[in-house]
Design brief:
By secondary structure, the protein is an alpha+beta fold. It contains 6 helices and 9 strands; from the N terminus they run ββααααβββββββαα.
Length: about 260
């Protein structure tokens, strides 16, 4: 759940009024098929996670395999101190958090990194813009998807947001009050508001993102977020110039006649 952009000091019924913050991420876990342990606690460096990353083994293996080819002008000439990128024995939430932090510290914006890790469904049968499809296709060669079902809340200290993976099998509902408070949570009614205070409400849909910019004091919806990011670089041109398509590899061979000529 995240609350933004108002200060907690304005809402003493929600938290200790001595705490002043423009945002908060809260996670409450209930155990289903695993016994709770500190080792599996949410990391809370950049994200909190409801659900499972069901592609985790592949994500771990591919991240480990690419470590020897990693380079970053922003981090260091020698990245060996960062390896292994993913915490050995860490939970799916901790590993996702490791990957997200790596992408952000290496220079990508928080929403850009989230789009890389949790892409929308972007095949030719889906009605999305050509720029967005090019963005996802380009980044598919760099980062494999971390597929859920998963609902993510994330922040870099300025931006705070929520995102649902493309399977869409985790709930994520939001309420915006008329005095600028937003609550995003797994279930509606986590915090009760009088109907007259509610300005808007809704739910995240598969692959969609919602952001609050605490510096600008505004809520940014999915189309605006992604519309800017997919046009920052010429992804369509890069694909056209560098993509190699393999055709005919999976076609069924024509049957040969057994009748002699």
């Amino acid at each position: 759940m995240f609350l933004a952009p108002q200060l907690f000091a304005y809402y003493p019924d929600l938290a200790d009024p001595r705490i002043v913050s423009a945002l908060a991420i809260v996670h409450q876990r209930y155990s289903t098929n695993t016994f709770p342990s500190w080792r599996l606690a949410q990391p809370f460096r950049m994200c909190a996670h409801n659900g499972e990353i069901n592609t985790l083994s592949g994500n771990r293996n591919r991240m480990r395999a690419r470590e020897q080819q990693m380079a970053s002008s922003l981090l260091s000439d020698d990245l060996s101190d960062l390896f292994p990128i993913l915490t050995p024995g860490g939970s799916d939430s901790a590993c996702f958090d490791n990957a997200l932090e790596l992408l952000v510290r290496a220079g990508r914006s928080l929403p850009h990194a989230m789009m890389m890790l949790i892409p929308e469904a972007f095949g030719p049968t889906y009605h999305i813009s050509t720029d967005k499809r090019a963005f996802y296709e380009y980044h598919a060669a760099i980062m494999e998807p971390w597929d859920g079902p998963a609902a993510m809340a994330f922040t870099d200290g300025r931006l705070v947001g929520g995102m649902l993976d493309r399977n869409g099998l985790r709930p994520a509902r939001y309420v915006i009050t008329d005095d600028g408070l937003m609550v995003l949570a797994s279930e509606a009614g986590v915090i009760d508001f009088p109907p007259e205070r509610i300005h808007a409400k809704g739910r995240l849909r598969p692959g969609k993102m919602l952001l609050v910019d605490t510096e600008q004091g505004r809520i940014v919806m999915d189309n605006e977020i992604k519309g800017k990011i997919v046009r920052q670089k010429p992804y369509r041109r890069w694909l056209e110039q560098n993509r190699i398509e393999l055709r005919g590899l999976l076609t069924r061979p024509a049957p040969h006649s057994s009748t002699p000529p």
